[in-house]
Amino acid sequence: MKKKIRNLKIASVLRRAISKVLMEDRVFNKNIVVSDVKLSEDLKKADVYIVLSSLNKEDYNINTIINEINQSSWLIRKSILNYVNLRFIPKLVFKADLAFDNFVNISKVLS
Predict the structure, then answer these.
(1) Which residues contact 24 (CB under 8 A, 6 or more apart)?
(2) What is the rounded average pLDDT of the residues 18-42?
(3) Strand bridging mode 45-52 / 32-39
(4) CA distance 55 to 58
(5) In the structure, what pLDDT confidence band is assigned to residue 27 with cuts at 50, 70 and 90?
(6) Nearest C-alpha neighbor of 15 from the set 42, 51, 48
(7) 3-class SS of residue 83
(8) Contact 90, 43 (CB under 8 A)
């Protein structure tokens, strides 16, 4: 139980730190919102779920953005050190969070 609570606390701290790094626009200049961070049991890997916050989603392909941001994940990991005081920063794997898009599509269908 204590391990689960610790994972949730570290995930919350990482989510805030990654959001701050992405808002600085030094690493990646697209409008990206971090929706969730899920850590592995051993805290070595973190799945970071992101959502595009721009209104013109047709201009951007989410898969290309995920590939670009995964290629620069080492720079994001390095930048996180300014915001957190952790012994080890987990490997970041960025993934698209499609839950919001699914919600919007279902809402359109129901309307």
Answers:
(1) 79
(2) 83
(3) antiparallel
(4) 9
(5) low
(6) 48
(7) coil
(8) yes
